[in-house]
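Re: the 196-residue chain
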Amino acid sequence: MAGTSDRSTPLQAQETAQLEEHLQGWKEVILAVDQVLRWQKPWFPLAVIGFTTAVFLSLYYLDPSVLTGVSSCVVILSLADYLVPIIASKMFGSSQCKVPEQQRFHEICISLVRTYNRFVDFWRSFFHFKERRPKTYFVLVISTLLGMAWIGQQVHNLLLTHLIVTFFLLLPGVLMCVSKYTGMVRRLFRQGTKKD
């Protein structure tokens, strides 16, 4: 993207340091969630699917109103924001992480900053596209929204949301597996071309 190049490395390093400082109380939880999302154990994908299915089945069973659902989510997030750092410091102690864990936490923070910057750059380029080609923008947005409305009409919204959330939670593990196997295939092709 064009916008990514104008973000200097010192600015990205500063944003990463600020994010690391802000998430310091969540470090152990973030590292554990990272292991689950990257499928460090073979049963983690099933655990992710089971967890999301249990959450969405409970939502389906309880059938809360929008106001109740939003306020319940905000209460849960507020409690987690307050309690998780306290509980994590008591459980894991205030001792420093090992070097590999600290390095992985730093990599996660870099990845989050890069993802945020890509999203902002995409958002900006989307509105630049609107200014440059308004008719194409209009046709693209309207057709996309109509397609999404049709899909939303055909599939129950909670099922559709469950599938989307599960897809995004499984995506990091899928990408890791794909990169692992494509790397193996590349090595095999290199070995094959060297023998010829």
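The two ends are 39 Å apart (CA to CA).
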